[in-house]
Write a structure and sequence with these properties.
The complex is a heterotrimer of chains A (about 280), B (about 325) and C (about 350). Chain A is mostly helical. Helix content of chain A is about 75%, strand content about 0%. Chain A has helices at about 5-45, 45-50, 65-95, 100-110, 115-130, 135-160, 165-170, 175-205, 210, 230-240, 245-275. In chain A, α3 (about 65-95) packs parallel to α6 (about 135-160), α5 crosses α6 (about 135-160) and α6 (about 135-160) packs across α8. The longest helix of chain A is centred in the first third of the chain and has 41 residues, at about 5-45. Chain A is globular. Chain A starts with a helix and ends in a 9-residue tail after the last helix. Chain B has about 325 residues and is an all-alpha fold. Chain B is about 75% helix and about 0% strand. In chain B, α7 runs antiparallel to α10 (about 225-240). The longest helix of chain B is centred in the first third of the chain and has 46 residues, at about 1-45. With about 350 residues, chain C is α/β, with parallel strands linked by helices. Chain C has helices spanning about 1-20, 35-45, 60-70, 80-85, 120-125, 135-140, 160-175, 175-180, 200-210, 220-225, 245-255, 290-305, 325-330, and strands at about 20-30, 50-55, 75, 90-105, 115, 155, 195, 215-220, 230, 230-235, 240, 280-285. In chain C, the strands form 2 sheets. In chain C, strands 1, 2, 3, 4, 6, 7, 8, 9 and 12 form a 9-stranded mixed β-sheet that branches. A 3-stranded mixed β-sheet of chain C has the order 5-10-11. The chains are: A mainly alpha (about 280), B mainly alpha (about 325), C alpha/beta (about 350).
Chain lengths: ~280, ~325, ~350
């Protein structure tokens, strides 16, 4: 076998291998979804959405309080995180003072990479300890710290892409800078900015670790935002690690609900945008 | 005319004030981000002080972990964190780079974009759902099929000896590998796509096969970005909590075998934070959190620089 | 915008009105968690304005969070040590609630029989001296059972556990080598590696999924997870299966001679049919409540627990408290100030 043929064989083998690898990695997504749909689908029933959790051995329990709890915690986190992230993104895109903006940008990206369990520790120190209480608020603060960098970066990115002529035209008509931003730039970039917010919220709604010792857990209806609160991700964790088949089924059902929300948000925003990436870069 | 001038002056003042207020508000919120980061570092540093003062540097190198008798050694967790992450990369880098090559060099653009979109969805799946799947599908698979297979074929290596529990370091590495796919594939693909067309054409003009062009020319050109993607994946793997703690066995010991259970920094914090009695115990966990924080910050910072260097310059194909 | 503010305000108000109900948070032992959750559920039905949220987490977490003040009361299967009581700003009172049994669960493929374990065999399994299921000593006590030649995988607790304390307390009493090498505590250095589960449910979960595993959990977890558990030879030389009667008999001696602070161990108790790994489990109630309504609500619950609550224990395989102990506890309630 001469050298050329050997090189051609290697060429064929390696390129086929890359195709196989791609098939493997893409199929992992379908395997995950397949198991969730199959196992979660047969466990999902009306009780899941309406009933409170019951003691093991008692059939018919659900995760109604966890669904509401997650909505409360994520909602509060969004109330805090979205305005902060948005306005910081506006600053980076529109004002951008060299040194300070560079610092803010760098810090925001670093914040993005902080492990969520570490943020849970910080929220515990800042909120749980002084109040001597686990609470939904503590969980929301932890999640908002994770949401802010995501919204900041997405806002900056999409506001920057608004064409400069648009701004210049508005300025030429005599509008002041703040008016230009509020009435021209932001509406023009709103599609991307809003998708950034949705993606960020979808990301934090699946977070478990920061809630473990901030919002903790609750078997009853959550008694207010200053009390321990059940949440979907924590419930999945507790049930998956239990020995009861009934709880396992509920874990699958909850997993399906959670992944459904997350994927719907991701796919919808991507289709709306028709481009852009959802993998954070550093 | 006097009225119009007055109106014009008022509205100018209003607009000018508006500009100042807008700038002030946005600067404040931007500064809030920096403040938050400073706060995080401050909390980690001060709350780990009791541990740092009581134990010193020895803590990072001691593997004696017995909280009840107040013996604290951080090595098993640092070891477990690093080991599971390296295992994850050992699996996901070949698979990920191979996929990235396929997606950038071989697949037609529309298929490439569609497949990349699907792979990037993997990044959106929450960690606890990876853990849920791992417990019920991956662990039995490892215990009944994969680990006995490795034992029978490669069992002469100490890393593949010992009891096949199913849960353990190897299983944690596998699930982490799946979680790092999207980072490695997405960023590597972009780095490869950013390699100028001239480089490819020059290689082909010299008679290289497509594979040789890819492996000997394109990939080296994009190596900084690829390395950056690996660092990104590594940073993600290091900080993973839920999926790992559900399949690693939560055992604070160092073993030679990959089948054995282990522990990671994130997992031990998740498990033991709420029951840590005494100031030293809790601050030990916080010190471990500080170590993890520093590791991920450094890695993420390096990754950003590398990725910027590659995709910032050069034209997309 | 206005509409959004109004709806947010309404939701918060709704939350606050539920909060006007008495919210009490507790955490601790998973050993009695099933009966505690049943009690708190039923008590809430009977008294809708009181909501007691029990977080589990293990006896260690219960003591730790009570010390931090992040819960209103704790629960533990290990009586608190003097030095730990000293660390607490408000001294806690121990209130026994039920008695329960720690059983040895196992998952041996192909074996559904009830295995018999002698104390020294149990100690040696967890010491690592007996490594395989078909060891001669196990086979001797279980003739007719086909035990496989597989390694025994012990499952321990990863968290600070009162159940661990009860189990190791028993082992310390029956094995001098265990007492000197390992001792009894909520967390010990287990001689054999094995896997670590979080809480009683975690251990049961691991045993259920891992062939050839052996673990130690409270009786109701074995029943509810449908796991086989063995008979143990007690100090009188009889093979006893964990049951309400066996546990009650084990507590008989302590019931007569209960110390004033209720801290007592009933492992390896004398008695013809007493179950050797039995224990009381306690609620840790602070002596002083700054919130009067909370203190009153908890006191009312304790009174209910000692009377109506005791009637529900048997259904979940926990033994109700002996009458003498109940009487003493009712007197201790007066020590709670609010």
């Amino acid at each position: 076998m001469n050298r050329l043929m050997r090189r051609k064989i290697i060429n064929g083998v390696m390129l086929t291998l890359t195709g196989i690898f791609t098939a493997l990695t893409v199929s992992s997504l379908f395997v995950i979804l397949g198991y969730l749909i199959f196992n979660g689908g047969k466990s999902l029933d009306w009780n899941f959405f309406t009933k409170l959790p019951l003691a093991p051995g008692e059939e018919g329990g659900g995760m109604a309080n966890a669904i509401v709890g997650s909505a409360e915690i994520v909602g509060m986190a969004a109330l805090i995180g979205i305005p902060v992230g948005f306005l910081a993104g506006v600053y980076l895109a529109e004002y951008d003072d060299k040194a300070f903006a560079a610092v803010v940008r760098y810090v925001a990206d670093l914040l993005n990479g902080v492990p969520s369990i570490v943020i849970g520790i910080v929220a515990w120190t800042l909120v749980v300890v002084p109040l001597k209480q686990f609470s939904a608020v503590a969980g929301a603060i932890a999640l908002s710290i994770m949401l802010i960098p995501i919204v900041t970066r997405q806002t900056e990115q999409f506001l920057r892409e608004v064409p400069t002529p648009l701004r210049e035209a508005a300025l030429a008509l005599g509008a002041h800078k703040w008016k230009v931003i509020a009435t021209v730039v932001v509406p023009a970039g709103s599609k991307g900015v809003i998708t950034g917010m949705i993606l960020g919220v979808a990301r934090i709604s699946g977070e478990t670790a920061p809630l473990l010792f901030t919002a903790f857990n609750n078997q009853f209806w959550n008694g207010g935002l200053g009390q321990p609160t059940a949440s979907l991700p924590v419930q999945i964790y507790l049930r998956a690690t239990s020995p009861y088949d009934d709880w396992h089924r509920q874990a699958w059902a909850a997993g399906l609900v959670l992944i459904g929300l997350v994927l719907v948000a991701n796919i919808a925003t991507r289709l709306v945008l028709a481009r852009g990436t959802s993998v954070p870069r550093g | 005319m006097a009225t119009a001038v007055q109106v014009r002056r008022q509205s100018r003042w209003f607009d000018q004030a508006g500009d100042n207020i807008a700038r002030l508000i946005t600067v404040m919120f931007a500064a809030a981000i920096v403040l938050a980061a400073v706060l995080i570092v401050h909390v980690l540093w001060t709350d780990s002080a009791p541990a740092r003062h009581a134990l010193g540097w020895r803590f990072l190198f001691s593997s004696d972990w017995d909280p009840v008798t107040e013996k604290f050694g951080g090595l098993p967790f640092i070891f477990g964190t690093v080991l599971t992450s390296i295992l994850a990369l050992a699996i996901s880098v070949p698979l990920g780079l191979g996929s990235a090559i396929f997606l950038s060099e071989l697949a037609p653009p529309r298929i490439s974009n569609a497949l990349t979109f699907l792979i990037e969805l993997l990044a959106a799946i929450p960690s606890v759902i990876y853990g849920l799947l791992a417990i019920f599908t991956l662990v039995p698979l490892m215990r009944t099929t994969v680990e006995p297979f490795l034992k029978s074929t490669l069992g002469f290596l100490p890393v593949f000896q010992g009891l096949a529990y199913g849960v353990g370091v190897l299983t944690a590495g596998v699930i982490l590998a799946v979680m790092t796919f999207p980072f490695i594939i997405s960023v590597s693909r972009e780095s490869l796509l950013a390699v100028p067309r001239e480089q490819r054409e020059a290689a082909l003009a010299l008679g290289a096969t497509k594979w040789e062009m890819t492996w000997d020319v394109v990939v080296p050109y994009a190596r900084l970005g690829i390395l950056g993607s690996i660092f990104l994946g590594l940073a993600r793997a290091l900080g993973e909590t839920m999926a790992v703690t559900m399949v690693i066995g939560n055992s604070a010991a160092i073993h030679a075998s990959l089948f054995a259970p282990g522990h990671t920094i994130a997992a031990v914090i998740a498990n033991e934070f709420t029951e840590a009695t005494g100031d030293v115990y809790r601050s030990v966990l916080i010190e471990l959190g500080l170590v993890l924080f520093c590791l991920t910050i450094i890695l993420n910072g390096l990754a950003r620089l590398m990725i910027l260097a590659t995709t910032g310059k050069g034209a997309k194909r | 915008m206005m509409k959004k503010l109004l709806t947010i305000g309404a939701v918060l108000a709704a939350g606050a009105s539920v909060a006007a109900a008495q919210m009490i948070n507790a955490a601790g032992a998973t050993f009695p968690m099933p009966i505690y959750q049943k009690w708190f559920e039923d008590y809430h039905k009977a008294h809708p304005s009181v909501q007691i949220n029990y977080g589990g987490g293990g006896s260690g977490a219960g003591i730790s969070q009570l010390t931090n003040g992040t819960v209103d009361f704790g629960a533990s299967d290990m009586p608190m040590k003097d030095e730990d009581i000293q660390k607490m700003k408000v001294k806690p009172l121990h209130f026994p609630t039920v008695m329960g049994a720690v059983v040895l669960i196992y998952n041996i493929p192909g074996v559904s029989a009830e295995l018999k374990f002698t104390p020294d065999v149990i100690a040696d399994i967890f010491l690592g001296k007996i490594k395989k299921w078909n060891d001669a000593r196990l086979a001797k006590d279980n003739p007719g059972v086909k035990l496989p030649s597989e390694e025994i995988i012990p499952i321990h607790r990863s968290d600070g556990s009162g159940t661990t304390f009860v189990f190791t307390d028993y082992l310390s009493k029956v094995s001098p080598e265990w007492k000197s090498r390992v001792g009894a505590n909520t967390k010990v250095s287990w001689p054999v590696e094995g896997l670590n589960g979080s809480g009683n449910p975690g251990v049961a979960g691991f045993v259920k999924q891992t062939p050839n595993a052996i673990g130690y959990v409270e009786l109701i977890y074995a029943i509810q997870s449908k796991l086989a558990f063995g008979l143990i030879k007690n100090s009188a030389g009889n093979w006893v299966k964990a049951s309400l009667e066996g546990v009650t008999e084990a507590a008989a001696g302590a019931a007569k001679a209960m110390p004033a602070d209720f801290r007592v161990s009933i492992t390896n108790a004398p008695g013809k049919n007493s179950y050797p790994i039995s224990t009381f489990t306690w609620l840790l109630i602070p002596t002083q409540f700054s919130d009067a309504a909370k203190g009153k609500a908890i006191t009312e619950f304790l009174k209910w627990m000692l009377t109506a609550g005791q009637g529900q224990t048997a259904a979940l395989a926990y033994a109700p408290l002996p009458a003498a102990v109940v009487a003493k506890e009712q007197k201790q309630i007066a020590q709670i100030k609010y």
